[in-house]
From TrEMBL, chains A, B, C, D:
Extent of the signal sequence: 1-20
BP-aspect Gene Ontology terms: lipid metabolic process
Name this polypeptide is given: Lysophospholipase L1-like esterase
Record GO terms (molecular function): phosphatidylcholine lysophospholipase activity
Species per Swiss-Prot/TrEMBL record: Spirosoma oryzae
SUPFAM superfamilies assigned: SGNH hydrolase (SSF52266)
Gene3D superfamilies: SGNH hydrolase
Keywords: Signal
Keyword rRNA-binding carried by entry: no
Transmembrane intervals: none
Source taxon at top rank: Bacteria
Record keyword Ribosomal protein present: no
Amino acid sequence: MRTGLSLLLIALLLSTAFVAKPTRVVFFGDSITQAGVNPGGYIDRLRKMMPTDQFELIGAGIGGNKIYDLFLRMDNDVIAQKPDVVVVWVGVNDVWHKSSFGTGTDPDKFVKFYDAVIDKLQAAGAKVMLCTPAAIGEKTDFSNQQDGDLNQYSQLIRDLAKRRNLQVIDLRKAFLEYNLKNNPDNKEKGILTTDRVHLNEAGNQLVAEQMQKALTGK
Amino acid sequence: MRTGLSLLLIALLLSTAFVAKPTRVVFFGDSITQAGVNPGGYIDRLRKMMPTDQFELIGAGIGGNKIYDLFLRMDNDVIAQKPDVVVVWVGVNDVWHKSSFGTGTDPDKFVKFYDAVIDKLQAAGAKVMLCTPAAIGEKTDFSNQQDGDLNQYSQLIRDLAKRRNLQVIDLRKAFLEYNLKNNPDNKEKGILTTDRVHLNEAGNQLVAEQMQKALTGK
Amino acid sequence: MRTGLSLLLIALLLSTAFVAKPTRVVFFGDSITQAGVNPGGYIDRLRKMMPTDQFELIGAGIGGNKIYDLFLRMDNDVIAQKPDVVVVWVGVNDVWHKSSFGTGTDPDKFVKFYDAVIDKLQAAGAKVMLCTPAAIGEKTDFSNQQDGDLNQYSQLIRDLAKRRNLQVIDLRKAFLEYNLKNNPDNKEKGILTTDRVHLNEAGNQLVAEQMQKALTGK
Amino acid sequence: MRTGLSLLLIALLLSTAFVAKPTRVVFFGDSITQAGVNPGGYIDRLRKMMPTDQFELIGAGIGGNKIYDLFLRMDNDVIAQKPDVVVVWVGVNDVWHKSSFGTGTDPDKFVKFYDAVIDKLQAAGAKVMLCTPAAIGEKTDFSNQQDGDLNQYSQLIRDLAKRRNLQVIDLRKAFLEYNLKNNPDNKEKGILTTDRVHLNEAGNQLVAEQMQKALTGK
């Protein structure tokens, strides 16, 4: 009897293990995430850092995207993938395009569309994680032109996460702390970015580590 | 027998008349349309100009709206009303907010969201009519600051209407023609607008007439 | 003999005292300085705080002015007054008008025109003192939209002062320190400003105190 | 006696003719004028089109210059050259930099600085000729983004020329007329410009011809 039961248990456990699908994570964002799937990119690094039988990592980044662009394309690019988790990382273009093209996003509409994105993802059964926009310039004395706005939009995201009880990956905070230690000359790029915005090797590594910590809860 | 048949016919005709629902038209737009339902506004005027048993006119304008704001709120504010016809009139803020807040809409994204709005309206069974943005300033020598962009976005809408075989109400053209006749001093406001953008009495009347012509095909 | 000499000395000293003209200080700036001469304004307060026989205080502020506007009007408005000291306080509009009108000032040209203003003032024999732009918004976590730029332009002014060996009145630093103590709710206005930029009573008092300290060296 | 006197007169006249200096013309402007001295540039072409004993042509263009940059550097770069004629050609950056950097020039200040530039040039004894900004985009239906502003600033220059009784070289008008004939496909560049703003061969030739006509009065 005991042997029979044990065998049954083992069989059940094995079958569970065999059918257990890995958690499907979609990284949903802009050009930074678009580059994240390239060799050395943060998603590429994550794939090597996390057990592939437990996590399936999918990039869904498109250059120039703002929050409302995510909303427009989310059915096709994200929800159709039936993700378990969606990591939303957006905001740089919402701020940056104000001064470069006159086509940024107002703060109140940023929140409105972000809420709508979260609503739809949650309705599709996905767990949602939010990221703050990391940097437009790496100077540590808040003298990068867009620092005021980036701080504002980051806080909007933190408030949103708190209000909706979501996990936030505070990349802006992580980038600043890293730069305070590693950017003694107050350079505007070259520490974690190649061009003030897009990630160099150290930047991709830092983001991958932050993402891993959030995804695995460690 | 003949009397009986006649009575039946009359009864049938009456019943048809009684159940025939008027065409439900939703005007979908920004602050200009929001003010259109006020006494003297263009929707208010249309209600008096068109037979109420044939047309039910509903305003769905919200101040500051750009094309992507329409996309965000269209399920609740338009499709839920089960409209037969939707008249979309948007574009002024997509252009204007570039210089006043740095939050206008890029031309390629303007078309992308406009296509998505039309897709959804058509999927809901509504006939869609498009309007060009009338004016930001009434000077007739194309020296209003946003004239270049307004002409560009108007052409994008005309091209869109052509490509999708939709009717376009060319308010920009109508406003220019009216001003060429009635604005000899090349004033920037006061002919059809109170403030270069929002409609005065003559403006509301002109828009109502243009809308009536388009809706009734006369 | 000694009595005669002493009397002579006293007479000389007295005559010197009598003919000694007060130091003429011109405050050269934008709308904040234009309002500074109003009752309760910072220049009005300074006039009560400093001995009138030693200091003659003149306001030369015009609303909307940027550094290049100061350069354009300095001959008539400042140099013609033969000032002993000129306190230059500018920068808010150079930053602010970027997003509100698209007509701010590039950082490199800000420095170029500032250098030209200083050159001309020094050539006219005036001692020049520089101020940093205090605030566009009083939130203390650097999340006011223009904080990045204001920090950048303030640093440009500090660097300029250092390079040219000039005294700098660091109002931006003073405002931040005051707000860190007195703005626990992280409000954007109402602590030192009425509207995020222009001074309320406390703001005028703080500026007056900072100016007094700089002008009297105490 | 009379023969001797006549000969003397002739000798004097001849000597005067021999020492007669050519008219010194300075072209004062932005990157378009900076490139104008290059081989094939409009100033280079003018040098071949006009008699060198009668006209000395000097380029004084610097990339990115707006009207206030001209004012800042005019003593060194123009007045020091003791020009007989100064052709001022500016305005593209005053308009363009609004949307690309947020650092354009307000229309009222454009006129203010232009007046100041003219005042100084006239005080230095130079004849001043004004040009309208030719183009930011060559589409002929006024649908280039900055057409509204360019038309506005061109009119400001025409009004300024009229008010001060100065000659205006209306390059904007000349460019539009040329494009109406030679740009049937409504292209945004490639007819007179390489990139919507800077001159190609045809553009340099057209400008040279317009300048020649204005300078020689033919």
